[in-house]
Amino acid sequence: MPALMELKGTELAGQRVVIERGPARVFAAAVGDHHPRYFEDAALVHPTFPFVMAYWGALAPSPGGGLPIDRLRGPGRMILHGEQEFVYHAWPRVGDVLESTARVADVYEKPRQGGGMEFYVTETDWRRAGSGEDVVTTRFTLIVTYRSAQ
Question: What is the model's pTM?
Fold first, then answer.
């Protein structure tokens, strides 16, 4: 099964999230960072918190979702978390309401012994609701490994 090259450039469903104090605090503690700036009432979020915002804080279910995981699965295929990157334009805080736009920025393949690897790169731009101020851009790479047909 070849990589789903047709996904490159696809717009994904955007979301609207509210950054709540409880989840932001739990996240900072879970990654072992107990700096007071993450535990105040209007705290900054931990630098890697934007990775979970779409899952932990969504104000409504997202129509359409993200990558078609069901199409990426199959016998001899394994889905892995690749790299992630955060580019900050402003720092999000507890209480912020953010809106996102997301897209599949790249899809590519690399051979490996006995099979190959597919790479699916998504980019999400988060902005403050109302003002439209850019807050953070996240890049996430999902990797699918597969074995060659025997």
Answer: 0.86
